[in-house]
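Thread: "does anyone have the structure for this chain?"

Original post by V.I.:
We have the sequence but no experimental structure in hand. Need at least a predicted one for the grant figures.
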Amino acid sequence: MYMHSRYLPVLFLTCASFLAAQSRPALIGRGIDESRRHSLAGNTRPEATARNDGGAVADNLPMEHMILQLARSASDEQALKEHIDSLHDPASPNYHPWMTASEFGAAWGAAEADRTAVTQWLESHGFTVNSIAPGGMTIDFSGTAAQVREAFHTEIHHLNVNGARHIANMSDPDIPEALAPAVAGIVSLHDFSPRAMKRAHADYTYTAGGSTYQAVTPGDLAVIYNLNPLFAAGVTGKGQTIAVIEDSDLYKASDWNTFRSTFGLTKSYPLGSLTTVHPASASGTNNCSAPGVVAGDDGEAILDAEWASAAAPEAAIEVAACANTRTTFGGLIALQNLVGSATPPSIVSISYGECEAENGVASNAAFNKIYQQAVAEGVSVFVSAGDEGAASCDAGAQGATHGIGVSAFASTPYNVAVGGTDFGDTVAGTNSGYWSGTNSATFASAQSYIPEIPWNDSCANGLLAGYFSYSTVYGSNGFCGSSTAKNYGYLVVAAGSGGPSGCATGTPASTGVVGGTCKGYAKPSWQAGTGVPADGVRDIPDVSLFAANGVWGHYYVDCWSNIRAGGASCAGAPSTWDGGGGTSFSAPIFAGIQALVNQKNGGAQGNPNPVYYKLAARRGNIFHSVTEGDNDVNCGGATACFGATQSSGGGGGRRGSNVSYNGALSTSTTSFTPAY
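Reply from O.Q.:
Generated one for you, tokens below.
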């Protein structure tokens, strides 16, 4: 397929790993003085303002299953990075001896003395310590709002935000100074959930080539991205498990069966399976409750399961779901429990996100560290890059006002960030050349690979402006100021995300705006190649697949029958089904492609990015260049555009290209077709 030659995994820990576990000194070196405090800066939600303040919660409000994220020393962090690099280096004697969760904890978890000191401090303030994760880097604890106020010196208040009621800490928590070297922070003290990356598509018609829309089906996917030769050779994902990470159960598991049977997957690839799991903590703590059906997020869960199966039709798909607690995203609980288990899946897909500057330092660290552990165990982590162009802090807005920002879930060096493209046939006027005039028995009509452009629904999209005969997107005569853009819904922050990591650590200059003491993740050594910016920081996406929701007439179809939550009945032809786009689709699809890789190569691959970038540099037929288009979004506001000159009239904003990011849309980091 497209990975390097087979390997024979050797299941042992290197001597260096054991020595690291045995010799690592404690970071907490003196007695705890409660009067000497250290602020855990960068851990207050932007919504926690006087304007939204609904008053303090009751003192006895339960705050269950909070997560305290521990920290390593800088030297240990560097040593772990080097160890993970060696696991992925074919020239290293340490190549691919994946660790277990307990081995990882012994080698790279926080020192036992530090865990004990932090645990005792929590208990001294009345908290119940539920467990320490097998990886040795998180402590699960529970208490009340009053105990949080007394121990961490921050109040939990009710918030009223856009008509919804929430709770959150009103200031950054702090801890005794003596604990600071060993504590990264509390992952969250609020109930704001990350957003799913699906973009709905409405008012469409399911048609064949030459008409208004082509809905991409599993058969189309297999043709466009050249999966059929693998399927014919028996490489279909057999023996592989893909876990899709969710905070909702499925509305109906039968929707998955309907999807597969309608599109011919059940008959051709009968070994595919679907299960829902609520992964328990390896420590025995009951921190994963069955979430039930969470309206809207159940639509995310089913499309993840369906489209992972479309790319790997005989893989075992696990919907791994935990309920959100009052303080913690259920998807993070599910991921941590899976990675901490004795038998983690070899592939996970995550279609949720939150921009770095709003996610908070401790939560950013939590995702980075669990992904570190995952790849050390051989798990490949695929994450939606996002649906907001380079303005991930402006999700849901009509224009960008927070500048360049990327999703914290996707920007770590230990995951594959999967971006979104659209097909360029409609722009080029060649639509009928790539789609048949009739659908097959399995509703497929694509005839070949279709050249791609960035997915972009915004009025700042130069290709879209040109299509409507506008020579500029700004000013009184620009597309963004036109009635056409307003009436057709193009005043929106909606595009395949990409950009530099800018606020993985540190405190933003202002609410949700990269700056201040913010810093991005350093650029990984493997992220190099034509078109990759020499900016010194991690850039996303790494790869991209089709993810559009209909702006150029193409979108995905899925079976989600929860009509009350926005789905559609799957009782009739696919023309009546739910449909849409977003990197929600591209991440599980690429996870499915990785399942084919794992089957072909005989085992788990860990972080596949080092291989992807090498293959892109050496064998360009695997990756297709995206050289036309942009992911610009409409931009306005004093902090949005980094000094660009103000446009006059119409568009009401500064130059949108200053919140675009085209560097990652290059030969080495774009759309993908396996080579055989």
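V.I.: this helps a lot. The CA atoms of residues 176 and 575 lie 60 Å apart.
O.Q.: and The chain has a mean pLDDT of 88.
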